[in-house]
Amino acid sequence: MSVSAVGSRRTLAKAGVLSALIAGALFAAFPVFWMLSSSFKANSEIFEYPPKIITSNFSFGAYTDIITNSTQVRFFINSYVVSLSVTALTLVLAILAGYAFSRYQFPGKNWMSTVIVAVQAIPPITLLIPYFGLIVTLRLYNTYPALILTYAAFTLPYAIIMLTGYFNTLPRELDEAVKLDGGSALTALRRVLVPTALPGIVAVGLYTFMIAWNEYLFALTLTRTEDMRTVPIGIQLLMGQHSYQWNEMMAMSILGSIPVLALFLRFQRYFMAGLTSGAVKV
Amino acid sequence: MTAAVGALLLGGFWSGGPALVEAGGGGSLEFQQWWEPELPDGELRALMDQFQEQSGIDVELLSGPYASTKEQVIAGAATGTIPCVVGLDGAWINELAGFGAIADLSAIMGDAGYDDSQLVSQVQVDGATYMIPVVNFIYPMFTNDDLLEQAGVSDVPSTRSEFADAAAAVTELGENSSGWILPLSLETPNGVQNDVMAWVWASGGLMLTDDGQPDLTNDSVRSAIEYIQGLWDAGVIAPGSFTMKEQDKVEEFTNGRVGMMIDSLAHINLIRENNPDLTFSISAVPAEDDYTGERGIPYASWGIGISENCDNKEDAWQLVEFLMSADVNTTLSSLSFGFPGNTESVPDFVEGDELFQAAFDMYQEVNPTNEFVGLPVAEELMRAFGEELQSLLNGDQSVDEMLEGAQERWMEEF
Amino acid sequence: MTSTVASARPGTGSDGVLAPYVRRPGRGGAALRARLTPYAYVSPTVVLMIVLILIPVVTVIYYSVMDNVIVNKHPAFVRFDNYTEVLTSPEFRTAIKNTSFFTGASVVAHLVIGLSFAMLLNTELLGPGVKALFRAIYVLPWLFTVAIIAVVWRLLLNPNGIVNYLLSSTGLSDGDIEWLSDPGKALFAVTFINIWAGYPFFMMSLLAGLQGIPGDLYEAAMVDGASGLRRFVHVTLPQLKPIIVAMVVLDILWTTQQFALIWMTTGGGPLDRTEMLSTYTYKWAFSRYEYSIASASAVVILLLSLVLAVFYVRHQKARD
Lengths: 282, 414, 320
Prior knowledge:
The complex is a heterotrimer.
Chain A: H1 3-39, H2 61-67, H3 70-103, H4 109-118, H5 124-137, H6 144-168, H7 173-180, H8 185-196, H9 198-214, H10 217-222, H11 231-237, H12 246-267
Helix pairs in contact in A: 1-12, 2-12, 3-6, 3-9, 6-9, 7-8, 9-12, 11-12
Chain B: H1 2-14, E1 28-33, H2 43-55, E2 58-63, H3 69-79, E3 85-88, H4 93-98, H5 105-112, E4 123-125, E5 128-138, E6 141-144, H6 145-150, H7 160-172, E7 178-180, H8 190-202, H9 219-233, H10 246-254, E8 258-262, H11 268-274, E9 280-283, E10 296-306, H12 313-324, H13 326-336, E11 339-340, H14 354-365, E12 367-369, H15 378-393, H16 399-413
Parallel strand pairs in B: 1-2, 1-3, 7-8, 10-12
Antiparallel strand pairs in B: 3-10, 4-5, 5-10, 5-11, 6-8, 6-9
Helix pairs in contact in B: 8-9, 8-15, 15-16
Chain C: H1 4-7, H2 27-64, H3 81-87, H4 90-121, H5 128-138, H6 146-157, H7 162-169, H8 186-211, H9 215-223, H10 228-256, H11 260-265, H12 277-286, H13 291-319
Helix pairs in contact in C: 2-13, 3-13, 4-8, 4-10, 4-12, 8-10, 10-13, 12-13
């Protein structure tokens, strides 16, 4: 095959991939783009017909209103504190549990797995009142731990299932290698498995953060005062009985997504280049 | 075993959780409502500070999103954590009173020697008051005068046939214009109350019998439904009805695409702000062509109540009394563009403003009607009626079937 | 010679050779510790779950066999009456039908789109900068809370909204489509929104999984002359299988209980076209104030998921 034929095959393939990526990007980003466009409009222009992308009233007003409002800034701070804590807690507990499920057989393993999986299907709305009562009884009402523990309980099943899956893709030879060198199971976990499963762990961590960041129902019920409430509640407060602050809602949502996006960009290098290739010398 | 666990849980969960309100005079109160975000920044807080000066009681405002208020109040009721003073909607009163979550205000008023003749209305269940409407928002008809003029309609319609003709004329204009708009979303089925039953009440009809039982197959309801079906079939209603919410309705009107709508007076300022160029007027909802009696007008309220598990109901009552006093009530109505719950008050936006003056006159003359207030599972009744109506409009059943179906479903709940 | 005693104990060390003849102190202790190790690892999780999940779940089950709790100060035990009420109601059947379609279509689409995007993002044909940009774009639907997603999509799909506008200006339709209010279209519209909102989960997990596939396997396949498609089917898919199975199970469970998205876009309507198990349960609890019936409905959903969960666990066991 001539060099130029290979070259043009490659260019064609590249063009194909790029066009597919762009088409996909339109699908993914159009609603977000509309959100962004709406956040710069005046409230009266949101329902204009024909709809415009940039209007004559283009302004950052919605954003400045939010940033200068101390209550809303507090919502952001609370969301950060809660989401980061939940992610840390869930990852630690799930790595331990996932390791156990992946590497060991023990009595009770099966029904524990079954319960962990099944429990996720209960509609949260029915759990709301008993759960609320429990939190009140535990004297955790309107505190950070209420939300942190709640979200950890929600995200653990997911994290354990995913991490067990990721650990299962790692060959046991990796563990054996550590044990042959005299290390314990914990060492194998710490030194080899975690670094190797890092892409999976990062994916799970990001998703946990996302779930905690975006949760609304329990955040509203388990908190009472403004100094404890989170961003999703802040957004809903803009949906009043008599008027909606559309542009502020969109702006707050965009502002709310920036930290998560930043986290994602920061950690996404862990998704590049496979980290197991060459780890096991066959 | 299960019974024991159950008893433990029951005991813990709703026979009163830890008391979260500090007892004692010169003390403090918590006031849960959704009103603060609706009022200009800081105004409600200022009123609470004024109360603090007068009575020495601190009030902490707990504001939540309107859409979730009902669930929060119920969850609070179930766990005994409802704050002392709580903002309420008439649709929830029957249940909340039933589970003993809110206190009997008649008794409290009696004890405090309060003269309740200054109250425009009280919401009662079984003869005892549980909620006092602080501010009332009536739902008159709004007409887009520009569109009507373009369509060649000179007067604001006041009878049903005039309305139907006007709506048809506006729709003829094309370009996305519609004569009328009907939000029938099943999520918050207020459309049934405000946009559908309004026609029944405007012609002096009722959907309940004298002793409060459902009476959906009577002539007034039937004629209103047939009328609405006529409008639907004539294509004069804006698209998207089945999942349209009140906010969408207002936005469509504000953007000049709708000729007439029935909507809350509280939106007047919103419309003015968002579209200063729109010329519109307020009038009563059209009645049947030969009807000359009193016309009812739907309304919704910001109601207030006191929770049963409150430790210092006397303090709580002082706050309620404060909010209902003539001056404060005037301020509140003025700020929220609603009409006062105190008979003496006149909100400031009425003076010198034609639209509002006309509306206020209407409020004082006309009968604000809302048969849904105080009914059991009021929201579910609205939803059931809404589902049957959607089915009718979609062509899946006849008017008789629809009314009988709705009547049956309502009877199940009574 | 390994002794039968030593080899019968899982997790013990490799010193079984000496086991039967030398009774070292602590020998039994080491074995016991080894047996208990997995329990130690799962115990924090178990404690948290028991307190925070199991107790409320048991409460819900308790509610479901009583005659209306919360509203009623003296609930009576009614055995399975609430379950009968739920299982025989036509609304429940409609809800199951709609939920099955919604869940099935969503999960399949999530998998296909997620896998396609993950493969696209994993290509060596483009530079890291370009890939990073597209990764960030593709992850966008994930970043927003459900309330906003519902609001934005309602704006987009409004009869006078941008989607209809684009369709009518390009002549693809006459621009009057009622995406969310037309009884024939609502379920599809809502499913589409859910597909948009949920594919990043699959995409990210698969992307992470793709990183973990050793390059040697692909090299070996290429040496054997396997084409791109062959490599995909025989190397990529089998390697990704554990992750795919886990995600499908999770997605089914999560989609089944998706409530807010549907409630805020269509409220279960028009008519009953988007009534799901979640909206059905919600209405019993907060609109009709029948917590017991709502709890019964929740327990039914739980039992259905238990079936799925059992299959999943069996599948995992077979793999081990």
